[in-house]
Write a structure and sequence with these properties.
By secondary structure, the protein is of the alpha/beta class. Helix content is 50%, strand content 11%. The protein binds nicotinamide-adenine-dinucleotide.
Length: 353
């Protein structure tokens, strides 16, 4: 066995149907008395329900979370937290809302209780992101790791199939890259494999029968493991490509992950044979990159970058940007090979062995 370092992330997870009933107790357990509830404008109603459940432990609602945490939004939310005398944040929503909670924690140190309603996984990571003048900066800081995460699958019932599928593939991408990360370790690899298995088994039912609470619970369980994987070990080519495409071409986050993942896996197929074997087994056998592509296709998620707003004329610039300051990757990253990968992803070709 190879030498490794394992860093356990110190967060408390409360999981299950009805877990939301314990929210007020969880805030109390943190020693907090006034929680600012965060949400997107679309999830205002959910935020209000949460506020009611918190009773006199609620300080108010800030419902302006948007994708990629613009610094102006972060500043306005911080001001609201200060004005209301909040001593913790309850972030109810997907990666955008939890990201806003992290921006407040980064400068004020307020503890976060995360209540995730998508499968993006941000709630289990110490990774923050802030966007200024169209440029997103990210970093790692233990201050932003949510102290408590309340996973209640009931809250994901309203996530439409068109968002659920890509969001689940986004989670699978965290697991895939954890298996060939530079600092991969046996414990996180176990979680990553189980995350892929749970999500791949649940997602077809989730998109076909969105009200199936059992499948929703399995998908959210997979998303927890995926977030924990992303939070504990590094990222590689896939995440670098998605950050480039999202940041410089404004492509939607989860859909971009869905489309790029089979091609990033194909790129690393020969360089990471053990990871590919474990991914394939978790998907039910066959070839890992093709299996990821077939899963996305089967759940009606997009499979071509041309269908989500990228232009053919963008491919050269995308290849240039993605090969500048590359992340660690098991196979060396070269501009020509990445240009070819992007062409496959642009056209939506099924990865061939
Ligand atoms: P999101 O949070 O932007 O949510 C997408 C949309 O779905 C929003 O309109 C939201 O209101 C709505 N929504 C969320 N849950 C819903 C539900 N249950 N029912 C109905 N509507 C619902 O999307 P996301 O993919 O979860 O997050 C993307 C963002 O998170 C990106 O900015 C990404 O960079 C970030 N992210 C960060 C990390 C990290 O570790 N820091 C990890 C993953 C993602």
């Amino acid at each position: 066995m190879k030498c490794f370092v394992y860093n356990g992330m110190p967060s408390r997870v409360v999981f299950g149907v009805g877990a939301l009933d314990r929210l007020a107790d969880e805030v109390e357990t943190l020693g907090a008395a006034k929680a600012l509830v965060l949400s997107t404008p679309e999830q205002r109603e959910t935020a209000e329900d949460v506020t009611k459940r918190l009773g006199d432990r609620a300080a108010g609602v800030y419902d302006q979370a948007v994708m990629h945490v613009p610094i102006e939004t972060a500043a306005a939310a911080r001001e609201k937290a200060r004005d209301l005398g909040a001593d913790c944040c309850v972030a109810v929503g997907g990666g955008s809302t939890i990201g806003l909670g992290k921006a407040i924690a980064l400068s004020f140190g307020l503890p976060i209780v995360a209540v995730p309603t998508t499968y993006a996984g941000s709630e289990m990571t110490p990774i923050w992101g802030l966007t200024e003048a169209g440029v997103k900066r990210t970093g790692r800081d233990m201050k932003v790791l949510p102290r408590t995460v309340v996973y209640d699958p009931t809250l994901t019932l309203s996530l439409p199939p068109a968002i659920s599928g890509p969001s689940g593939m986004n989670a699978i991408a965290h697991c895939v890259e954890a298996l060939y990360a530079e600092d991969a370790n046996p414990v996180i690899s176990l979680m990553a494999v189980e995350g892929i298995r749970a999500l791949a088994a649940a997602l077809p039912t989730v998109v076909k029968t969105p009200e199936d609470l059992e499948a929703r619970g399995d998908a959210l369980y997979g998303a927890w493991l995926a977030g924990a994987s992303l939070g504990s070990v590094g990222m590689a080519l896939h995440h670098k490509l998605c950050h480039t495409l999202g940041g410089s071409f404004n492509l939607p986050h989860a859909q971009t992950h869905t489309i790029v993942l089979p091609h990033a896996a194909a790129y690393n197929r020969e360089a990471a044979p053990d990871a590919m074997e474990r991914i394939a087994a978790a998907l039910g056998g066959g070839d890992a990159p093709a299996g990821l592509f077939d899963l996305a296709l089967g759940i009606g998620a997009p499979t071509a970058l041309k269908d989500i707003g990228l232009k053919e004329s963008d491919l050269d610039r995308a290849a240039d940007l993605a090969t500048r300051n590359p992340y660690y990757n098991p196979r060396p990253v070269t501009r020509d090979a990445i240009r070819a990968l992007l062409d496959d992803a642009y056209r939506g070709r099924r990865p061939a062995k």
